[in-house]
Structures are given as structure tokens and as C-alpha cells.
Amino acid sequence: MKLIIVSGLSGSGKTIALNTLEDLGYYCVDNLPVSLLQSFSQEIRNNPGNITKAAVGVDVRNLSHQFEHFNETLDTLAANGMEYEVLFLRCDQNVLLKRYSETRRKHPLSDNQTPLADAITHERSLLEPIANKADLTIDSSNTNVHQLRDLIQERMGNKSGSMSLLFESFGYKRGIPTDADFVFDVRCLPNPHWDTSLRPHTGQEQPVIDFLESQPAVNAMYEQIRNFLVNWIPAYEKDGRNYLTVAIGCTGGKHRSVYLTEKLYRHFSSQLSNVVLRHRELS
Fold first, then answer.
1. Rounded distance, CA 239 to CA 253, Å?
2. Cβ-Cβ contacts under 8 Å for 97 (sequence gap 6 or more)
3. Residue 269 class from Cβ within 10 Å (0-12 exposed, 13-18 middle, 19+ buried)?
4. How far apart are CA 280 and CA 174, in angstroms?
5. What angle do CA 157, 165, 213 make, to 5 degrees?
6. pLDDT in tens, 185-212
7. What tens digit of pLDDT does each residue of 72-108 get?
8. Are 275 and 158 in contact (CB under 8 A)?
């Protein structure tokens, strides 16, 4: 039996996550009080029926004082033999403000005396015990509904007992992915952007590939990042990590980072069974 605990900021995509997990065959329950997690896990273990995996949503609609006991609840689950993972969704403050403005929905912690921005800040504080225990954190700031659904499917839908490894390219002009475990800055490498014939292409296209492969610094950067990961990925797997995110960033997230991310993905996907590729700016 596998239990996924889904939490995160209101407006960050928890409902999308639960719906996606339901499509993947999980038995899903939304807004389960933390105090009932143990009872729920015992119920599905004692009466499994067709339920082999389940997911529960935990958020600020809970009684807030229960979050203080979240770590104790997880310890109890583990002591009773329940295999679980915590998925936490976060999002940039300005993006959340925009989403609430567009949908005109009410934040669960806002009222006549509590502005939306203050409600979001308070929510972050309340959910910190859950965020700190997350096995997988996904930042939905730069994803739409379809991209978030695809990302969750890729990271959680193909689990085969091995660690899920995500290679993600990004552009520094839109910020560093906050859910990355490793971030490699490749802005020091020769930039195809300054060649007007290469500028329209991406790091997935042959003209840019040929240019970057001709640069000794690019090849050296790739080999050193690859060797670092080859040496240390087994250590993270041995430590029990289920997810690892490697982010490669250049200025715009179109050329250098895309090329190196593709190359790293090809290398590791030929050796590992659960490797995911994402180009944040191209998507």
C-alpha cells in the first residue's frame, strides 16, 4: 500500500495534483484532517479491496493547530509500516496574487480584516512543517494547468522503485527553480544568441548543437557536470531519496541550458529507469 500526502499553498495546484493522481489510479480524498491520517491509513490497509495506492489532500482548511503534530503523525505512519510520500506544491507570491485576481476566488484565510497578501504569508507559515517534510516539491509558478498535470504524471506516474531524476533547463531572467536540488549556471559558456543565424533556433536544433559541440568549454562543462552526478546520484539513492531535480540555467533558457540538459538526459536515461526531461522556458 502506498500513500501520497498532497499539500501546498492555496492556488498552487493541489486540486490538479489530486485529480492527476486519481487518473493514475490513486484512491483520493481531499481535505483530510491531519489527525485522521493514521485512522485513514489503517482503514485502507485493513480493508484494501481494490485500493493499492491512495492520496490525501492536507491544507489550511484543516484545524491549524494540527499542523504542529504533522511530524509525529508521519512517525506513527512509518512505525506502523505505511509507505508514504509527501508532495508539496509552492508558488511565487505575485503569481498567486494574480491567480486570485483572475479567478476572483476567496483565499481560505482571508477576510475583511486580512488582506490576500497577508493570508498567503500566514498560510506559508502554517504549512511550513509539511513543506519541510516534502519528498517532492513542485513550484507551479511557471506552469499552466496542462504542464503541471504532465509534470506530476511524469514524476509520479512511472515510479518503479527507483529514484525519479528530473533534468530541467531554465532561464535566469525568469528566476531559479525553487524546487531544484542542484543548480548549474552555464551562462559563462559561449552564447549562440549573439549569432543572428542561430538566435531563432533552440538547443534542440542542429545548428545550435553543432555550434555548442565545437566549443571546448561546453564539452568540459558537460563532462564535469556528468561526472559529478555519476559520482553522487548513487549516494542520494542509498540515502532513500525518491526524487532528485537537476536544473541547468542560462540567460534565456533557450540555447545552452537546453543543449546540456538534453545531453545529460540522454546519458542518464540510457542507464536509469526513471528519468524525466523538462525545458521550462520552451514549454
1. 31
2. 116, 117, 120
3. middle
4. 10
5. 125
6. 999 999 999 999 999 999 999 999 999 9
7. 889 999 888 888 999 999 999 999 999 998 888 888 8
8. no
